[in-house]
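Many introductory courses stop at the sequence. We go one step further.
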Amino acid sequence: MIAIEHVTKKYGKTPAIEDVTCTIAAGSIYGLIGYNGAGKTTLLKTIAGIYRPEEGRVIIDGRPVYENEELKQRLFIMTEELYFLPQATLHTMGRFYKGYYPNWNDRTFERLLAIFNLDPAMKISGFSKGMQRQAGILLALSTRPRYLLLDEAFDGLDLAKRNLMKKLLERYVKEKNAIVIISSHNLREMEGMIHNVGMIKDRRLFFHSSVAELKRSRVKCRFSCALDLTEGDLQGAGLRILHQEDGFYTCIAEGDGAVVQACITSLGGENIQVLPMTLEDFFLNEKEPETYDLEDLF
């Protein structure tokens, strides 16, 4: 288990994350979401013991992770900015990691080379962006970590490789009872894979729940209305608007579906449809709306 206890990390005097608290159970995939600059990468690096928090602590299996080499040998973090040794090949990197990670497995390494169809003798610097991402995942899984932290894990991967990576991670967590934490902007890729989700907003962990509970506690509806409803009308009925066009409204509300539909009916709504709730819907609903003045731009 990973326990994050009231963690605050600052860069100089500027806080990057503040008072973050949550626990992540073994045998689960945890999705970390938030807009750019919210603090996702900082939190991952703090969990990995790279950063020392100014306040609070990260406990892994009952022990603080910072400056704990034994724990770090069971943990692998793959950051968005991939790093490989200069002029390295996958064989070079394999030997490098084998010297540090005691659970390194040559058989896993060779099998993943075949699955990803990567040339182990070719310099990684000559790989495409997507191939470098695959190389990072291959090396990470070959260390057989107990805790795997992935920052923007799907970046640069084509559809086939994204689907492959999801299958690999799901199988790995199930067989090894591991913890995988994924930070990504690609919420559609995380859909159906993660068990729990946390959203960082204004440097704090704004939301932390199982995906199942998130979908049970919120309803997404689409309806038509002959009246010109204002945002105030909708908010007064507990509805947050996602989209409006030509008299049709798509909204999200917390609570029971029947109660939400009754509220919509009271506003004059008709043709009510209850739609599947997605992580992307949740993110857009909780993110502060942005407005841009595009007049006379071009």
